[in-house]
Amino acid sequence: MSVTELPTAGMLPGGPGEGVQVVIAGDEFPTQEMTLSIGPQHPSTHGVLRVVLTLDGERIDTATPVIGYMHRAFDKLSEVRDYRQIIALSNRHDWLSAFGNELGVALATERLMGLEVPERAQWIRMLMAEWNRVLNHLMFLGSFGLELGAMTPMFYAFREREDIQTLMEMATGARMHFTYCRVGGLKEDLPKGFLLYSEVLVKRIRHRLLDYAGLLLGNEIFKKRTVGIGVLPGEVAKSYGVTGPILHASGVAEDSRKTEPYLKYSEVEFEVPVGEHGDSFDRFNVLYHRIEESLKIIEQVHDKLPPGPVMPGKMPKYLKPPEGWTYVRTENSLGETGYYLVSRGETTPWRLKMRTPSFHNVSMIPYLLKGVLLPDLIAVLGSVFFVVGDVDR
Amino acid sequence: MTPDEIASHLTEATGAIERSEVAHGEVSVWVPNDKWVEVATHLRDCGRCHFDFPTFLTAVDMEDQGFEIVLHMYSVRRQHHVNVKTQVARDAARLPTLSGVWNGMNWCERETWELFGVDFIGHPNLVKLLLPVEFEGFPLRKDFLLMTREAKEWPGMKEPAEVEH
Predict the structure, then answer these.
(1) Is B104 on the interface with A (CB under 8 A)?
(2) pLDDT of residue A199
(3) Which of A41, A162, A238, A309 has its CA 20 to 30 A from that of B104?
(4) Looking at this predicted complex, what is its ipTM?
(5) Terminal Cα-to-Cα distance of chain A (whole angstroms)
(6) Which domains are seen in chain A, by residue range?
């Protein structure tokens, strides 16, 4: 019996019907490298993200995210727009956290202009930002389950999201792109009945969150697929500029609501949930507990909301921030959303750089996917919670 | 460290700071091009600075003065910020890469390269990131005109400042 060594690449020796017996020595089984393109249309990518993989057998050797399919030049467009128009533009790219995006633009403009925002407006901004965070996290809570084969959490999540969208629609008039912030304050005060509904909703969602815990957090199959998968050490996460729940899951409790409080975050009590291992399960777990903390903040806003106006008495007709630059960071739903604003004293910014969390989080994906088995790809990719519009801007 | 302390510490420790400015509680330091990597490495390795978190890198078109490259750093451990800036000439826009200092700089530099045309020497993979491969020009330069606005200045009836609320 002839024994032939397996070539590393190319055709096996011997024509059809000749029969070649291959003896495998040791654990190494060299295979031909294969390139696999995931996306741009794939349910687990939340939009149009493409990942090009090179596979060694079932193991991922390299993963290259291909982005830019939704690039719409936010930076360039804002250079020809009034500061008030940018607010409407900025809540489009991350469609799951619209309020968090527009908040940053308003804060940056106010800081350059030295505007004093009324107390009540600051509290309401915080309330809306936290509801938006819950809205965002519920989406990922549902979709991550869906990607791993659990259908029910998605339906549950959308039931809760519907309630919150109804609540936010009461105040803003919109379900997704709120455009509720104004430079200096807010579009208008909360309508009658808003706080009552908000209180009811906090209780309802807190109760229903237990369903998610039962369905996923304590689920044996879910744990088997996520525990120990896609481990991200804290130091690596920081070097890539990763923020938000993904950074927290790696054990780094960096949250600008705590470390550099803006709005009224210094006057409310809440925790920053952190993970221990930085795996897919921890990332999901952190996301879950962030909702609980947001609900805590919302309850405190209900108690502490002061009366008063929501816009300063007198606003200039033309918004012209004086010459200068500033960087404003906010802890948005998915991480740090920041605006680097350069003004030359005109009605439009000279340069407005938007720093989005998803862009930096996705840039870390090649690290996370290296050496991962192909069936675990979805469990890893789904746990890097990102919105493609937020990656591409 | 406070913004002023960061400015004076960097001036002493690196000797490469041309000028510094503190505004709105934020500090900017300007460094020459040839000290760019040296200062960035110092920010990472110095125990007092301990800048372990690269927030972003971008450029600002300064027209006649070329481009100002802005590197914003944050320290998770010390909780302070710094903006490191350098100016590159318009017709010779190049700078050594920082992708070896922080992993996160890789994509930031690719983005700055394709949008501003600033070359990052030594970058391992300087190819288009957000734009299509066949795209020509550098869109965030001020001389790259936004054609829709050239054709019609503002499509609305009124400027937002003229609308009574």
Answers:
(1) yes
(2) 92
(3) A41
(4) 0.90
(5) 63
(6) 117-315+359-384 (1.10.645.10)
